[in-house]
Amino acid sequence: MKLAPEKLLKALQEAERLQAANKLNKALQAARQAYRLALDYLPAGHPERRRAARVLGMVLTSLNQQPEAERLLRESGDLPADAARASQLDARNSEFLLRLHREGASVELLSLAASNVDFAAQHLELDSDEATTAQAHLGRLLEQMGEFGLAERAYSEVLNLRRTRGVEGHLMVWALLDLARIFLRMERLAKSGQMLKVALRLQQAQGEQTLTLAVTHHQCGKVCLQRGNPEEALEHLQQSLAVRRSLLGANHPEVAVAVYELASAYLELEDYPQVNETMEMAWSLSQRSLGEDHPQTLQFLAERGLHLMTSGARVSEGLQMVRMAHSLAENQPFEERVHEHLRLTRKSAEEIARNGAYQEEGRTFV
Question: How far is it, in rounded angstroms, from Cα 87 to Cα 89?
Fold first, then answer.
């Protein structure tokens, strides 16, 4: 655990001495200094940060400054949380999550996420389930906005709060997975791997097959791929696929995604027949479960076609697949990232067709 700086401990001792001597105004100055230092140097939930909140809260109570005093004493754990406020924040968290899935990241939603975190700080203990969930939601939004450093800070605070409180089960696992994912996106692979090992160990100890376990194996696979270990990556990705099939059935869209992810491991292993087979299987599953003109199906089709071209196996057929995916997506109200992905895939395919010459089935493709 991080040690409190000496100047913080001295400020706390001074505030407690002055409060005991009933010198409340001077005690208030020392207590505010101590609390500011605690905020600057210590994570939420740290014992000395709770102590600083308690001391300042008690001084403010003596000075009849109740609203701020109550917030600080909830932070210190001396004042029980208001069940109605917790229920209210739970509803606000649910509203935020629904809007994030429906609307995507935006400045308006950032304001809502920040207001939920402020609401938690005002009315609940910072390590309560509702408060840490609000903080995790803020991290998720920042991550989607590309603010990875700020997202890491938010996720780290959630993990520290839940660890300090002794939280177990799915909330702790998700805190670990959030941090592992942001480390992966920041290419801090060793840190990501550490978080994932702990998350996987917790889930294996519980002995349950859940979609969260599938997510953990999937992230482990991605880390192993980036660290140059495709054999171990393939094992994790196969585990992820097996869990999803068991829980969702063989023809679910998420199963199609899990099948598709196997192709990246087979590609690193240079097992090109398996790459083709898994890409075709993923596209077929997606087509059955979502339809032939769904964005996922079209992206799988385009990627499969591009792979056929780059491998030099069935170049003309691959080009037709890429063109077909692009054509089916035209004038569809897809997200711009989907259209951009298909445009770039077609551009790559056309360049290969224009510049390359390949032997295919006994004839030359130019």
Answer: 5
